Amino acid sequence: MSSSDIKVGETKPVSDKEVIHTKNVILKESGGWDTLGRLSTLKRNLKTLSAHTSRKPVDENKDKNEPSRFLGEGVSYKAKLIGILEVSDPRGDRMCQEALADLKMAIRAAGEHKQRITINIAIDGLRLRDDKTGDCLYHHPVHKISFIAQDMSDSRAFGYIFGSPDTGHRFFGIKTD
């Protein structure tokens, strides 16, 4: 039975060999285990951060444990952009906690609202889109995200460091809805 013999709504038994082949194709297209590992870490952090919220992924029909859901459009979550801050190092939990605290204080002091965004996680990277306009604010390839940290004082907030030694490192603070 070929894949063209299958009709919409029907399922086909899949062998272990086909599953392994599919995973190898995903690894080859994504750049290897490192990229999938970073995507998994990012996904796990987002899932942990927003476990107690009412937010739902945009596409609920995809299997939650299937890495192939990051192919194509990927997975999207609603969030708010706390802010962006230049940082000195590519990694460091204490530095990230301080950056998040500084960004939160700046927002409170200015009396502004956080920008509503949609975080899209796909095999080609992380996209931050404006909720109102749909414009892509930032696109960060996974291999340039050097560190991800959860806020110790707020389980729905996290941040990540993006950049390189040549261009500098920027911390992006985000709070999930």
Automatic annotation (TrEMBL):
PROSITE patterns: PID
Keywords: Cytoplasm, Developmental protein, Differentiation, Phosphoprotein
PID domain sequence ranges: 71-177
UniProt GO BP: cell differentiation
GO cellular component: cytoplasm
Record flagged with keyword Iron: no
Keyword Phosphoprotein: yes
CDD domains per the UniProt record, alphabetical: PTB_Dab
Organism: Graphocephala atropunctata
Protein name: PID domain-containing protein
Pfam family, one: PID
